[in-house]
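**Protein fold record**
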Amino acid sequence: MKFLDELTTKIDQAKNKVYVEVYIFTEKRLKKALKDAKKRWLDVKVILEKNVYLAWNLNKETFNELKNAWIEVVYSNTENYALNHTKMMIIDDEVVISTWNYSYSTFKYNREFFISLKDESYKDVFLEIFENDFNWEKFEISKNNLVLSPFSSREKLEYLIQNAKKSIKIYSHNFWDEDIKNILVNQRQNNILIQMIFPDLKKVSSNKEIINDLKSNKIYIKIIDKPEIHAKTILIDDEYLYIWSINFSNYSIDKNREIWILIKNQEIIKNFLDIFNDDFLK
């Protein structure tokens, strides 16, 4: 629960604002931290997804609870994208981009990753994304280090995989995109080392067929029971790490609101590699 403690502390120490844009929000300590921030007269705003897949009312209790605490909370606009699958929090001048939802199981049981950004060059961009989504305004942006789905994700993702020179390492929760699978297979035929980590098939049975296809094409697959793999990351050539909310599915890539960020910091990548290699060798 270390990361829950850390995130809660960040909210408790906020001075001006806390903005949240997230797919699922049920975690009690985070809700309390937001309500306490509002009591301190901070600017607190929240964007939630109304129609969580197979759990349509999952965010309803949180929505009402925050609204009753005088927090500005809205559901996402379904005219601009299918689902809002983003996982982003803005705390004063810091942006936290993660693979996690705000639920108890996320912090207790899952393998997840997050990146905290304090770079001035990012601050205004993420604020602009949030404010446009909060106000239901259509907004598109694509930068070298940042991608906002659904507008250019497929083009960027395919380019990323096709241009790997040595290796591709992937954490995937859901994978059911034939085009991406075929690009990975082609890259393996070009002698690119590809390693992929998936959750237990009992938990995400929809992965079974595509995993068998990947294995038959000599892509190295590791299936893990614990921790539960909910992370969504890709590391190219041990030099370019992408952390995102995207699943490898046409819905996630082409239709949802998603955010992904490129990390080149070698210390961060080394830490990621240590975790990945440890999980892969379990």
